TrEMBL record, chain A:
The keyword Transferase applies. Keywords: Transferase. GO terms for molecular function: 3-oxoacyl-[acyl-carrier-protein] synthase activity. InterPro entries: Beta-ketoacyl_synthase, Ketoacyl_synth_C, Ketoacyl_synth_N, PKS_Beta-ketoAc_synthase_dom, Thiolase-like. Residues 1-378 form the Ketosynthase family 3 (KS3) domain. Belongs to the thiolase-like superfamily. Beta-ketoacyl-ACP synthases family. It comes from the Bacteria. Transmembrane segments: none annotated. The keyword Transcription regulation does not apply. This is Beta-ketoacyl-[acyl-carrier-protein] synthase II. PANTHER family: BETA KETOACYL-ACYL CARRIER PROTEIN SYNTHASE, POLYKETIDE SYNTHASE-RELATED. It comes from Streptomyces violaceusniger. Pfam families: ketoacyl-synt, Ketoacyl-synt_C. Coiled coil: none annotated.
Automatic annotation (TrEMBL), chain B:
GO terms for molecular function: 3-oxoacyl-[acyl-carrier-protein] synthase activity. The keyword Transferase applies. Keywords: Transferase. This is Beta-ketoacyl synthase-like N-terminal domain-containing protein. InterPro entries: Beta-ketoacyl_synthase, Ketoacyl_synth_N, Thiolase-like. Residues 46-184 form the Beta-ketoacyl synthase-like N-terminal domain. SUPFAM superfamilies: Thiolase-like. GO terms for biological process: fatty acid biosynthetic process. The keyword Glycoprotein does not apply. Residues 308-331, 371-394 are annotated as: Disordered. It holds the Pfam family ketoacyl-synt. The lineage of its organism: Bacteria, Bacillati, Actinomycetota, Actinomycetes, Kitasatosporales.
Length: 381, 394
């Protein structure tokens, strides 16, 4: 059973609002910059894809992620005609790092921060009157996991409408530990490139309104969610397992009732790390088989950075925009594909007119081997 | 009686709590026996050993301890092993913790400010991600179904139980282990403004399972899950679960619930109350799971014939006659329709059900859940449960 996406919202380093974000990505605009809020001298890595909303360079504020989340949800709710009242609507938020950045500031620097706002329920209640709020902290697939749970609530008939959102900002702990484990600090994210050096984090939020399919509603829908899979590798606490990823891809296609040959576009997870991209390439190659050269493929983290728990939903919104417009943003920095991905039809260097695109697949994988894959479809015209 | 298609039952309970080894031991009202020393911190090594756990944080180790016991209690792992005996993709994990990895985040940020990121231990990397608890439980036991981590404030533990049941009801998995865990350390104490002695250092776990799947493998159900609600306030939440003021058999109150003037409470004064945090400390994201574990203990006691009425502690702090509070007629009529969204009429009278609430009127919301006696298994030859379509594809 499928669901309709009737509203979308996005905030990222490259822009504010779905239209602006999608235009920026298609124009090949990158949000890459030198670290804005952390002390650069403490790291070998110096870059990230941050939202430039701090009062001054080198200073930081609590609650930034919460602000973006509220803006993304507000945009999605308005477009779906829900207005500002979400008192009866479940809101499921997927995040990797919650407001842990604010906790870091509170504990280390004594910055005032209410620890009851580590999760997003209080802020969503204040702004939208929302009480059926659930913050899932499921690493980098969290927002697609939230989408899967929302789809289940609609499928089982428990709900008619659910808001799904994702958000993350850089924490100094995660940025620092990634810096520590990278052998050579990356200066940008280069998904699927042979010479990729690792991941850089990005700021951002994304939100969609998901509605149960009903006659007449489709005309204003942005697209349709056909199915979302979710599983766990249960093998390693940080490294991905190609078998677990392949199972997630296969299950999503099976649930959606599509075959690899039906997929026109793949929004890859594509974090630009050695292990992740190799594992994803192996899984895609295995599931798609001879069809692997069929769909267009792209990975937007080259322009948004890794927006962690929010990244899956941001990719999904981009996929829906691509299906609607036929335009697919490029994978910047991809000079030569990694071994095993030579046959993939990457969109490179500049956006491509993809023609008649109907079905897209969106990948999201996270620490702990948590995988989620969504299959979406263009709304009828 | 056989289980309805959507019924979700509790088939295992596990605890890793100082001084409370069984669900019934959670039905205490003070932190320790009147005489004697405070219980020692829970020794995780005694249950899961030391090997392989060096770099796991305290919350993860506690969660592993509770999960292990719940899985064993549910008969899902052999007595000498840890890998589940059911297919790994038929089982999910839902963990809940608000404070679990706060120390890694804050201490790492402070270490960077003092020196640099180069001096960090790379072994801390997994603990910087809040879902590390759920991940390790999956790895340890080979659980390849959906793996959820709830960090949802005061209601988080009860929300986690709800999502475990939702995964089962939606056919994603046949069963899930739900874990609530919190710990205390310098970071947590500072950010909460509370001393270690006030705070839980422990974990609770439940196995929730589709009734027919439990039955198919001959597992005994300790309780059945009733409706769940998340509402703006305590009164609204209780009214949604128990319309027309039906009286539950017992009420597991929100953490440190202060009884207002007579008649102000949303649950009749005759109903015995328990605040499990009195015994184990403020429990934050672990609370709802601990409450469910305690409610399983209460149901077992009630089912053994003693009933809540025979509980010498029952009703302390409420109506002194509360022991008799299990009025057989109380609310039974209306309870037949005490249903959540879309549920079928309820055959179990309210007086035999446990009402569990987490969060109070100062929280972003209040979550509530009813836990009931498991249906008796009368049918000696349960129909062979058909495979759900998903599993045929594997």
């Amino acid at each position: 059973m499928s669901q309709l996406v009737t509203g979308a919202g996005a905030v990222a380093s490259v822009g504010e609002g779905v239209d602006e974000v999608f235009r920026a990505l298609c124009a090949g605009t990158s949000g890459l910059g030198e670290l804005r809020g952390f002390d650069r001298e403490r790291y070998r890595t110096r870059h990230a894809y941050e939202i430039d909303d701090r009062p001054a360079p080198g200073t930081d504020l609590p609650g930034r992620a919460t602000d973006w989340l509220l803006r993304a949800v507000g945009e999605a709710a308005a477009q779906a005609g829900l207005g500002e009242d979400l008192s009866e609507v479940p809101v499921l938020i997927g995040t990797g790092l919650r407001e842990l950045r604010s906790a870091e500031l509170a504990w280390r620097d004594g910055t005032p921060f209410d620890i009851g706002r580590l999760h997003f329920g209080t802020a969503l209640r204040t702004r939208f009157g929302a009480v059926r709020t659930h913050t899932f902290s499921g690493a980098c697939s969290a927002s697609l996991y939230a989408l899967a749970l929302a789809a289940d609530l609609l499928t089982t008939g428990a709900e008619d409408t659910v808001v799904v959102a994702g958000v993350d900002t850089l924490t100094e702990s995660m940025y620092g530990l990634l810096d520590r484990v990278n052998s050579e600090p990356p200066d940008r994210v280069r998904p699927f490139d042979r010479d990729r050096r690792g991941v850089l984090m990005g700021d951002g939020a994304a939100a969609v309104v998901l509605r149960r399919e009903e006659s007449g509603a489709e005309t204003r829908a942005l697209g349709r969610v056909r199915a979302v899979s979710m599983n766990c590798d249960a093998s390693h606490v940080t490294a991905p397992d190609p078998q677990g990823i392949a199972r997630a891809v296969h299950e999503a296609q099976w649930r959606a009732g599509v075959k690899p040959g039906d997929i026109d576009l793949v929004l890859l997870h594509g974090t630009g790390t050695q292990l992740n991209d190799a594992a994803e390439a192996a899984a895609i190659a295995e599931v798609f088989g001879r069809e692997v050269s069929g769909p267009l493929m792209t990975a937007i983290k080259c322009m948004t950075g890794h927006t962690s728990g929010g990244s899956g939903l941001l990719s999904l919104i981009v996929a829906l925009e691509s299906l609607a417009s036929g335009r697919v943003p490029p994978t910047l920095g991809l000079a030569e594909p990694l071994p095993g991905a030579e046959a993939f039809r990457f969109v490179r260097e500049e956006a491509r007119e993809g023609g008649d695109l109907r079905v897209a697949q969106i990948d999201a994988f996270g620490f702990g081997g948590v995988n989620a894959v969504a299959i979406v479809e263009r709304a009828g015209r | 009686m056989t289980h309805g298609p959507g019924e979700v039952v509790v088939t295992g309970v596990g605890l890793a709590v100082p001084g409370a080894g069984t669900p019934e031991a959670l039905l205490r009202r003070t932190a320790r026996p009147v005489t004697g020393p405070a219980p020692e911190p829970f020794d995780t090594a005694a249950r899961i050993g030391r090997r392989g756990h060096r770099y796991k944080d305290r919350a993860t180790r506690l969660a592993l301890c509770a999960a292990l016991e719940a899985l064993r209690n549910a008969g899902l792992i052999p007595s000498d092993g840890e890998e589940v005996t059911v297919p790994g993709d038929t089982m999910g994990v839902v963990a809940s913790s608000n404070l679990g990895n706060l120390d890694t985040a804050c201490l790492t940020a402070a270490a960077i400010a003092e020196r640099s990121a180069v001096d960090l231990s790379p072994m801390s990397l997994p603990n910087a991600s809040s879902n590390v608890i759920a991940s390790w439980v999956a790895i340890r036991h080979g659980l390849r179904g959906p793996n959820l981590m709830l960090c949802n404030g005061a209601t988080s533990g009860l929300d986690a139980v709800h999502w475990g049941a939702t995964l089962v009801a939606a056919g994603r998995v046949r069963r899930a282990v739900v874990i609530g865990v919190e710990t205390h350390n310098a970071v947590v104490e500072d950010l909460l403004g509370r001393s270690a002695g006030e705070l839980l250092d422990g974990a609770a776990a439940l196995v929730v399972e589709g009734g027919r799947w439990a039955e198919a493998r001959g597992a005994r159900a300790a309780a059945a899950l009733g409706p769940y609600e998340r509402r703006a306030g305590l009164t609204g939440c209780v009214e949604a679960l128990l319309p027309d003021g039906a009286a539950p058999g017992v009420w597991f109150t929100p953490e440190r619930y202060a009884e207002g003037p007579a008649g102000a409470a949303p649950v009749p004064g005759a109903v015995p109350r328990y605040d499990v945090t009195g015994a184990v400390g403020r429990a934050s994201g672990a609370l709802g799971v601990l409450q469910c574990a305690a409610a399983v203990g209460w149901l077992a006691r009630a089912g053994a014939g003693a009933g809540a009425g025979a509980d010498p502690d029952a009703g302390a702090g409420a109506d002194p006659k509360a022991g008799a509070g299990a009025d057989p007629d109380a609310g039974a009529g209306s309870a037949a329709f005490a249903v959540g969204r879309g549920a079928a009429p309820d055959p179990v009278p309210a007086s035999r059900q446990a009402l569990i609430t987490s969060g109070d009127d100062t929280a972003d919301a209040v979550a509530g859940l009813l836990l009931r006696p498991a249906p008796d298994r009368h049918d000696p030859h349960p129909a062979r449960a058909p495979l759900i379509s998903m599993e045929c594809s594997r």
